[in-house]
Amino acid sequence: MQTTIYNDLFCFSHLRWDFVFQRPQHLMERFAQNRRVFYVEEPITHESETSTLRINICSKTKLTVVTPLLSITDGDRAIVVQRSLLKSFCEQQGIKSPTLWFYTPMALPIAESIPTPGLMIYDCMDELSMFFGASGELPAMERKLIDRCDLVFTGGRTLYESKRTLRSDVFCFPSGVDLQHFSQARLKGFDPLDQAVILHPRFGFAGVIDERMDLEFLSGIASSRPDWQFVMIGPVAKIDPGTLPRLANIHWLGKREYGDLPAYFAQWDVAFMPFALNDSTRFISPTKTPEFLAAGLPVISTPLNDVVRPYGELGMAGISRTVAEFIEIGESYLSFSGSLMQTKKIDEFLETQSWDAIWERMSDLIDQASSKEALVA
Hints:
- The radius of gyration is 22 Å and the shape is globular.
- Helix 8 (215-224) packs across helix 12.
- It has helices at 23-31, 75-93, 108-111, 138-148, 157-163, 179-182, 193-196, 215-224, 261-265, 288-294, 305-312, 323-335, 340-352, 355-376, and strands at residues 9-12, 37-40, 44-45, 52-57, 64-70, 99-102, 120-124, 151-154, 170-172, 202-206, 229-233, 250-254, 270-273, 299-301, 318-319.
- The chain is of the alpha/beta class.
- It has 14 helices and 15 strands.
- It starts with 8 loop residues before the first strand and ends with a helix.
- The model has no long low-confidence stretch (mean pLDDT 92).
- It folds into 2 domains: 9-176 and 354-376, Glycogen Phosphorylase B (Rossmann fold, 3-Layer(aba) Sandwich), CATH 3.40.50.2000; 179-352, Glycogen Phosphorylase B (Rossmann fold, 3-Layer(aba) Sandwich).
């Protein structure tokens, strides 16, 4: 019986591995089951006179997190140093012809130091050029990356429709869900201590709290229904924490570990996503939508394109454009627990959106691309 040998994989990401567990972590942990995976983070400036790489090996998956620690801040020089560090690292680890996987186009100049790369893959999970503080070079760098890659994936339908204008063979893989993990919430169980003191009904959100949040909308809902409690879980990033509305019925619990989220979700009455409608949210496909549904929660969202399609159109999420609409939908959810038929419909849909299913479909495309590359070689 022939054993398949998989190439090592370098993943270049703008997201810290231990920040919030999301798309890169779900996929890279699965790829680490059958190959060496090196997750390369953006650099950190440190005070030492010598630049180096910080290497952390995840005990669960053996995935290696590689963080450049740089003693210099000059942009061009920083790229040169990172290229040198990665080239030496590849030689030390015996890495040859690795697959290169990108979440940020800005890593392309650094990745070019890796000798004889194999397949190049761009998994576009966000329109990063629309985010606060994005580099003006990002659009041009992304176009260069898309032209050079063997495969281009997108994390949602709106992103897919945008990127396929640049290249015809783009594959759409909307946000997935770990069904086994989040379905634990349906068993209810204990209420975490920091949440147990909060009254019901509870409307909950979990995710990064940044410029994508419509804080005015959240404040408006909370002011209109002081008897409803709003539980906000997640780290605050890129915005001043002082701008968060501080009403008695809005509870900012901060970041919680991924493994603990089902316990929090289990004690909510409704999940909600108060996203703003702006440039930073135009292309997002929130991972939280299928996670909340897997937890057995009704969901209310502002009208993001990738929530309206498919979840709103399929009747799996309530779409709220105004505070009044939110309250009307919220009241209907609180008075109606849903039907077994609707639950079955949602679960059947979520099965097609599991991270395992997405990883398998991506792997098939990678195998096909590898076969074509081998034939050309």
